[in-house]
Write a structure and sequence with these properties.
This protein is of the alpha/beta class. The chain has 16 helices and 13 strands. β1, α3 and β2 form a beta-alpha-beta unit.
């Protein structure tokens, strides 16, 4: 905190003792090292301010970057008004499965806001999240939902309107890898459900249909945002199988270049949230972590979710976005697959159905 120059010979021993006493007093005041908090002052008033700052880490999946950049500011205002304390939220984004594994391997997340329940179950099974987390918050701990749609280039030259069109020769498909991306798992299940209806449950035909889709896949990125970048910025492929929010965001940013296609059948995708209890207990953030996730259900946060192209879980607020979302689409749910544990076992574990059809 003070200059580290070599002491000059002329400084007397008493001066040194007085300086040491002053430094010790600063240490007891709780000012800390001053690193990493952006503070430009080591004063006592700065120390008091820092003691009122709560720090929280949210590990999320990759398409939520814009949502949480805005939500963190909204929540910080709410938290300051209700507690008088400042909260600083650090956010991390990537493929949902990869993010979950990072928490298991030591990422010090206080909360996770991931693409699907199975990824949070992975963290629970590692002993970091308490049992019953799925019922801790409303709607299977999913404060917002989405679905799976297609993003095509303006004019839709390949005439893509439904899942059948993805198996046509010459159609280049972009979708992420289910082994690392939660969005990719939702993509696969939506297509599988369509095939189930089309072939009346004939699994041989269903697998053949899925194999034809994946034979047309040009690139499988590790996460949904990476797949969007491949399609939108790198110009690869004719159709992106995308989160609805990703597709709508792309259309909003490039209205003259892209359009969204809603298939006849899709899936209700429920991104889940949870407190990482082991870390929150260690960090002393249980209270703020719970408030952070609960506030996602507030009217202000629900409206913010809608503005970021996520479907609010509040049905009344969702209706106000009827001009944004197709609310009449036929949506299956994860319950149609026996829940996420069963679905992951059937489709995405090593040597399960995805590996079978992809390796044909």
């Amino acid at each position: 905190m003070r200059k580290k120059n070599i002491l000059k010979k002329g400084i007397v021993l008493m001066s040194m003792i007085m300086m040491l006493g002053t430094a010790t007093g600063c240490g007891n005041s709780g000012s800390g090292s001053g690193n990493g908090d952006g503070s430009s002052s080591g004063s006592q008033s700065s120390s008091n301010s820092e003691s009122e700052t709560v720090k929280l880490t949210n590990v999320s999946y990759d398409p939520t970057r814009e949502l949480y950049e805005q939500y963190n500011k909204l929540f910080a205002e709410h938290y300051k008004e209700t507690t008088g304390k400042t909260v600083e939220v650090t956010q991390s984004h990537g493929g949902s499965g990869s993010q979950a594994r990072s928490v298991v391997e030591g990422n010090d997340a206080d909360v996770v806001t991931l693409a699907l329940a199975h990824d949070i179950t992975m963290i629970e099974e590692a002993g970091l999240i308490n049992e019953g987390w799925l019922d801790e918050f409303e709607g299977n701990s999913s404060p917002y939902t989405s679905t799976i749609t297609f993003l095509v280039r303006k004019g839709n030259e390949k005439d893509i309107h439904d899942w059948d069109d993805l198996i046509k020769p010459g159609v280049g498909v972009i979708t992420p890898d289910p082994k690392s991306s939660g969005g990719a798992c939702w993509n696969f299940l939506a297509a599988w459900y369509y095939a189930d209806k089309k072939f009346n449950g004939d699994e041989t035909q269903m697998k053949d249909f899925m194999s034809k889709i994946y034979n047309n896949v040009l690139v499988m990125d590790s996460g949904a945002r990476g797949a969007t970048t491949t399609f939108v910025e790198n110009g690869q492929g004719d159709v992106l199988i995308a989160w609805e929010n990703e597709a709508l965001l792309s259309v909003a940013e490039y209205p003259d270049e892209y359009e969204m296609i809603t298939p006849s059948i899709s899936i209700k995708a429920e991104p889940s949230v949870a407190i990482v209890d082991e870390n929150a207990d260690k960090n002393g953030t249980q209270e703020v972590a719970k408030e952070y996730l609960e506030y996602l259900y507030s009217d202000d946060a629900q409206k913010l979710a809608g503005e970021n192209y996520y479907r609010p879980s509040n049905e009344e607020i969702l209706k106000t976005f009827s001009d944004t979302f197709d609310l009449s689409i036929d949506l299956c749910t994860i319950d149609d697959f026996g829940g996420w544990d069963q679905a992951y076992k059937d489709f995405f574990e090593d040597d399960a159905i995805f590996d079978e059809i992809y390796n044909q």
